[in-house]
Amino acid sequence: MFVLFNTIITFALGLVAAIMGSDWNVLSDIYQFAIIIPTVAVGFRRVHDTNRSGWWWFLVVPLFFNGHPNDNYYGPDPKADALGNEDGQDSETAPSLGLR
Q1: Per-domain residue ranges for the chain?
Q2: What is the DSSP string of 54-73?
């Protein structure tokens, strides 16, 4: 959702800049600068879901894997249901390969 909203806002600011003239492009630049830290924080949180240190975010590759199926060092599985099963799967289901 974070990426979706940022894409929509960036597109809207770009549209305003195109309509109003090149001086309005500063709005988009300010917005992009303002979301640098939240973007890194969301990326680190996503890498923590894969049971890795946040520094792996800079390698980009782990962002395409599913998270660790159980609780890990960084906290509980955000996708687990009330029974602790990932994505509502029963415990008899074979684990996924980790790819989306």
Answers
A1: 1-34, 36-100
A2: GGGGGG-GGGGBPPPSS-BT
